[in-house]
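Re: weekly structure request thread

Next one in the queue (74 aa):
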Amino acid sequence: MVLNDPSIRNRKLPILVLSNKKDVRGHKTAAQVSKILELPSLKTNNWHICDSNALNGDGLQQGFVWLSTQLKTK
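Done, posted below.
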C-alpha cells in the first residue's frame, strides 16, 4: 500500500482523500474509507476524508481548503 511507503509514513505530510461517488447509492462512508486505507494507524500524518462528486465538484473545494490550511501550517 502506498501509505506504508517509508517516504510517506515517516514524514509529516498531510493526506487528503477525496472519496468520489458520493452521488452513487451504496458509496463508502468516510469511516469505511479510513478503515480500508488504515488511516488511523498513521500517527505522524494529519489526514482528512472528503466525500466528493467529480461530476459536479461537490466536496472538492472543502478538501482543497483543508489541504491548503495544512500546508500553510507546516
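The chain has a mean pLDDT of 87. The helical segments are 6-9, 30-36, 60-72.
Next request, please.
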